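Thread title: Can someone regenerate the structure for this chain?

I was given the following input by a collaborator and told the matching structure tokens would be attached. They weren't. Posting the sequence so someone can regenerate them.
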Amino acid sequence: MEKSPDAFRTISEVADDLDLPQHVLRFWETRFPQIKPLKRGGGRRYYRPDDVELLKGIRHLLYDHGYTIKGVQKLLKNNGNKFVAAAASGDLATMEALAAQSEEEEEAPVPKMIIPEDDQIVGRPKAPSSRRFFGLIGNGEDGHELGAGGQQIGKEDRALLQEALFDLLECKRLLDQVR
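Best answer:
Regenerated them for you:
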């Protein structure tokens, strides 16, 4: 019997869902104050759906994108929980909207996505050259988006630019490791 999407999850259910050991989730609670599971008698943890989404985002950034804990902490501090949760699903539009919202709330502008500094990217895998970033290609739509200077940017061009950005970040990571 499946639980409803709104149901609280135990630590074992979340660990199985994220393919992580339970002790990693307990450790992350010490490093990310945003993770606050409900604790019942005997210390049993129950994770809310928002907690699970945040954990998915943290896992995605740490394991799939090679961020360090310090780098994810910085993203959470500057952009909030929803931004990191959106990173797990690859929801670029939500991430950009949340980053823009955090810019409006603070006087000093915050970059849309913080590019990790120095040692904050470690062991990032090389992206396959599938030209599919955040679901922009492959859905059969040839929609255009308005770019800088009022020019139209096609989805394929945007995907190619994102792939080039990823390759540049990979080069930077490799150069930083050599230093």
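Residues 129 and 137 are 12 Å apart (CA to CA).
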